[in-house]
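SEQUENCE-TO-STRUCTURE ENTRY
===========================

Subject: a protein chain together with a token-level encoding of how that chain folds.

Sequence line: the amino acid chain in single-letter code, read from start to end.

Question of interest: how does this chain fold, as expressed in backbone structure tokens?
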Amino acid sequence: MAMKSLPRLIISTGNTLRGTVPLGSKPITIGRRPDNDIRLDNLAVSGYHAQLIPLLNDMILEDLNSTNGTLVNDLPIRKRVLLEGDRIAIGSHELLFTRIPPEDMTEEEAADPPDETLIVSPRTDTAASGGTGVGATRTPGRTPPTHGAYLQVLTGAQAGREWPLNKALTTIGSPGVQVAAISRRGDHFHITRIEGGSHPHPPRLNGEDLGSHARALQHQDVIEIAGVSMEFIDRSTLSPHH
């Protein structure tokens, strides 16, 4: 039987990326109280705000009679089957629903995602450096191994600079203008648009509109975001003579 893709949430607050949460075969609760699976530490979030319920191949989002409501793609919902690229708004937080292809899963993810609590709090902010950064607190935490992939800036004031992609999640772009996230799953990398912002041109991958869905990155792909071009380099694809 073919392996199913693994759904996940990419969580951000404003222009700060907080982390990712894999969604497995168990219900997930979201809210401000500490016993939620995803704890959003914000007064606009109810104690038990919403829940995610897996049903066959679908993931259902249900609002739990929250005070301020739950939005999907800017529309209030009570219960809804989530689709790839749906954007959930809870308080000041945005949760992007996407799926990991089976070939990009780690062995642990293929078995079932680990039982972890993601805590999103204003106290966990991490300042972005050079347009990249991740702010997240995960319990328990694991430091991802360093991989031989990086971005090389092709245009702009930082042309020639290299940014290693050695985190599980890296943001690129300029807050308020355009922001995207590059996620690492095993030896594979995907890019997802997080914020369209005020830039007149959409973010592009190899000259094509990036769109709202996650896109797999290949060696020497060219990313254009916030008016800057950069090349994705994956050393694992290079021969020893390079």
Remarks:
- Helices lie at 107-111.
- DSSP finds one helix and 23 strands in the chain.
- Confidence is low (pLDDT under 50) at residues 112-147.
